[in-house]
Design brief:
Layout (H helix, E strand, L loop, with lengths): L5 E6 L14 H16 L3 E6 L7 H4 L6 H24 L5 E5 L8 E2 L2 H9 L3 E5 L9 H11 L4 E6 L4 E2 L11 E2 L1 E3 H6 L7 H9 L4 E5 L5 H6 L6 E4 L2
Parallel strand pairs: 1-2, 1-6, 2-5, 3-4, 3-5, 6-10, 9-11
Antiparallel strand pairs: 7-8, 10-11
Length: 237
């Protein structure tokens, strides 16, 4: 049985791009949809925040001479594409899904309204939250922490390319060691980059536990909501 009744799941845009991390990969999106379906089938109310890094990153685009605010809005639009792609894959499996956006795109998605998002979840619909916070200079990690707090989620699941939080980047440093558990203050003090400082701070202040795990590990999301050992747990302190 799940120990968390309402869950925030943060997915990076790169997860939608498969091995290359670019564009949309059908196999990768199908695998994500299966994970989402399993959680919904367990009776968990689920909200999902998606990044747009498989198409564009605002901070990187600004180095091309594009003003940072404009570049960030370009990134927000990319999250809409990912949100619609995931919606299509999940609904093809028979689960009702709604995409809500913090930036206005009413022809294709609903505007983000807190009470509307809550109502969708209460009715058993999976809620995909696109457009970040709707403001430049804020990451989608911060958007996920903010929405998790607003919507009363009991846990923040961060699905990444690696199976937890390490002392250093395990892709670059083979001696890096994985944490099984740590506090938000420790993560901030050690400048661990799995979430940005604003997201960590929001979770700490609202005592929202974070579980960081690999999106490539089949069934890991369902195990996490059941309280089984998965990845690294970060607790507010």
């Amino acid at each position: 049985m799940p120990i968390y009744s309402r869950v925030m799941l943060k997915l990076s845009g790169e997860a939608f791009g498969g091995v290359s991390g670019q564009g949309l990969d059908q196999q990768a999106i199908q695998a994500i949809a299966v994970e989402v379906r399993e959680v919904a089938a367990a009776g968990v109310e689920l909200a999902i925040v998606i990044g747009g890094g498989n198409f564009i990153r605002g901070a990187q685009t600004s180095s091309m001479g594009i003003e940072r605010g404009t570049a960030d809005y370009m990134g927000m639009l990319a999250t809409l594409v990912n949100g619609l792609a995931l919606q299509g894959a999940v609904e093809a499996m028979g689960y009702p899904t709604r995409v809500l956006s913090a930036i206005d795109a009413r022809q294709v998605v609903e505007p983000y309204i807190r009470r509307r998002a809550l109502r969708h979840m209460e009715k058993g619909r999976i809620v995909i939250l696109a457009g970040g916070t709707g403001n430049p200079y804020f990451t989608t990690d911060t958007a996920a922490a903010l929405r998790a707090t607003e919507l009363g989620c009991s846990v923040f699941l961060k699905a990444t390319k690696v199976d937890g939080i390490y002392t250093a980047d395990p892709m670059k440093d083979k001696t890096a060691k994985r944490y099984d558990r740590l506090g938000c203050s420790q993560a901030l003090a050690e400048n661990l980059k799995v979430l940005d400082a604003t997201a960590f701070t929001l979770c700490r202040e609202n005592r929202l536990p974070i579980i960081v795990y690999s999106i490539h590990e089949a069934g890991a999301t369902l195990r996490a909501v059941k309280g089984q050992p998965v990845g690294t747990i970060v607790e507010g302190d």
